Amino acid sequence: MSASIALPEVSPAALGLRRFVSDRTSLCCTAIVLLAALTALFAPVIAPHDPSDADLLRRLQPPVWQADGTWDYPLGCDGLGRDILSRLIFGARVSLGVGFGVVLVSSVIGTVLGTVAGFARGVIDTVLSRIADVLLGFPYLVFAIGLMGMMGPGLGNIVVTLVLKEWVVAFRVARGETLGAREQDYVEAARAVGCPAWRIMGGEILPNILSPVLVVATIRMAHVIIMESSLSFLGLGVQPPSVSWGGMVADGREFLADGWWIATLPGLAILIVVLAINLASQGAREAFDPRLHR
Amino acid sequence: MIRLLQRVLHLIPVLLGTILVVFAMTAATPGDPVQIMLGDQRATPEQIAALRHDMGLDLPLAERFVSFAWRALHGEFGRSFFHRRPVLDVIADRLPATIELTLAATVLALGIGIPLGLLAGVRRGHVTDRAASITALVGVSLPGFWLGLLLMLLFSVTLHWFPVSGRTGYGDEPAAVTHLLLIDSLLAGRPAAFFEALRHLALPAITLALPMAAVLMRVTRAAVVDVLRADYVLFAEAKGLSRRRVLLVHVMKNALAPAVSVAALEIGALLGGNMIVETIFAWPGVGRLVVESIFARNYPVVQAAVLLYALVFVLLNGLADVLYGVLNPRISA
Amino acid sequence: MSAAPILRIGGLRVTFHGERGAVHAVDSVDLEVHRGECLGVVGESGSGKTVTFLATLGLLPPPAQVEADLLSWEGRDLRHLSLAGWRALRGHDLALTMQDALTALNPALTIGTQITEVLDAHSDLPSAAARRHRASDLLRLVGIADPRRQLCAYPHELSGGMRQRAMIAVALACGPKLLIADEPTTALDVTVQAQVLELLDQLRVEMHLSLVLITHNLGVVAAHCDRVAVMYAGQVVESGPTAQVIATPAHPYTAMLLACLPRLDRLDAALTPIPGRVPDLTHLPAGCRFAPRCPARTVGCDQPQAMRAVGKDRAARCHLAIA
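Above: the input entities. Below: the structure tokens describing the complete assembly.
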């Protein structure tokens, strides 16, 4: 009697992907995020109206399911008579654009710096880690509001501010993973062969730490979207005529009694996108975690 | 004792770094600080130069930083452009309101998040757990400002259960002892004032507390699930201890440690969140002061408040470290 | 052997339902523990020895499926005992110690607390001071020096041997009648092992304790146990007085286990391991579970084997067994 051992025919990555795809929730949420991204990308084509087109005659027009609503403006109009649906669509550009852009830039910066710090150790590591500690020790929104307050509003400033806070997260992950990776045999081997440091970092270590960095990046994107919309809500974000979901909620504040949809719908959009990202990344973590599955 | 000192010493470079960051923020301000301070007043070039010299703006950056740090540590932040009073006084006036709000929110968050997390962890997989976990996930994904407006829409505008804004109704306030309205009104023996203050505090505190409660719930749940698998829980049951004792003493003592460190980080989120909540509910605290000052270009106030927030956060984190060591004796050894 | 059995287990079956199917961890196990005796339960990892006693103590909640034809303690039927009933029984009448004291003791609580809480739950000692006094007495009883100071110690501050003793003190705090010691020596150094076993012997006499020693070490059983039950793949395959079972094993598995042991009087002999592997508990053979590895396998071994009497007080689960 001998038990045969079945060797896995597929790589762990492919296995994880298969598991991820078979989970309905994860699939659904990824679809929602992709839909939002496509909406943002093709906003000028999809939006029924010009988001800045104001007409006081349409002021505070309710959404289509209420008494005076029409299908022309299915989600109603705001205090200046602008179409909410079109503004939502264009708002996606800012929210998702900033979210994606900030995470991309900060991940790159953080990963590079983290790998260097983890690999080189010594003074470089100490200095970079101290800087990271100080930045981490700053309450997030306080930092963002303070810096935006000083620098002034605008898209570029938001990106800079958020990147300054976000790079630390990627830095810590990359540094931690590098510290672990550099003890591995394949790094020893590369060093023994005389491989220059930058090549070891780029060629050997980096591919192995990409996965955790990627996972963290998806989680952070949700957070960045909330931060950007919070800043825009306070008036510290993108300025008119650019549309942002946070700014729309702020616009709707004064019309809470007469035009509840103006503040409620953009917030709902933020919630849906962020929730989808959170659920999808949770599903991804569970699908790719080797410990949970045998 | 030694470990305590070590931790305090470790904080110092972080504190200095924080002051440096706040200073750097100021340097990022576009425009001339002197012009801003003057506003619409007209001044001759000589007066401007004199003002500049007074404010030390003609010194090299390094010297300016040192003088800024020195003055900051002594509580001197200059005078508020707008109020024409020392900045620290202006902030001190608004501090009690923020403290009351933050304390209330922290108590609420701890009181909701941790027990719910324990419940969900113990009833893992059941309906209670699923419902609580989904609620927590939504809570973490909610934009705080939207939640505040929703609560306001539902409870103030539609149901009229709570007031829309402010800290008190218009009436005489109880004698100021602690400057925390809830406590002062109790001390003065005026239940009506107490309930009025509570009504005003309710929505802002809940708005501020819920996201933190959601995070705490998730962390506690994960810790509880982890701990429940441990051998010492089985051993405790084998000793014939009541379920209550096993959960509250054996499980929680071990599950609380990670929850505490997360709670400290989350208070940082509270510090930022209260700027938004105070703005929405017109709560007369430091957070609203910061936002107002930003739009009024009243930079000394912004600078001082940001530094204050940051320092408080650093100290809180240090405290959380100490607490973690207390709850988890193995770390201190 | 004295008196009637105080713990009786009959036809115990424990099944876990997992992703890969039903795991029959324990199947038709019959065991008895008599007052004042030490029963050794021997088997490899996965033989079901720990699960048997966790199930007996009611410590296997759903999704584990626990069924028994007979499960009684001092005549009381344990099968449908209420939660309150279990709380009263555990720690007070029946006690358990676990393999690794480092994980069995709560790292966040002092040794003293972990003893006094048992006293709190079961005894009627009037005050906290009285409980602490008793706790310190218990530590002294198990041979821990400076007991008053050790009351305030945390588990990780003690050495492995002291921790094991402390765990025994916790288990015996309320003077239970039966102690189930799961692998009490496995996590310890050899020299400390002897001390702990000696301690258990001593306590048996001083506290009129009945003992179940779960172990994979036949040497321990030989030296300390009155009776022994050998388990394999979730079943008891042989039981009887230790001396007899070791001298003349009735079941082939027992014989081969004994043959595995290196012998000091035959230093040149080769070691004889048992060929093959323990069966997968989700896919058990229909007949004798040991048959695939058994050198004595013949016709008739493909039928399920029942326990057969093989002499006085002895039984073996093999149709070939003779006393």
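Note for the figure: The interface with chain C takes residues 1, 3, 294 of chain A (CB under 8 Å).
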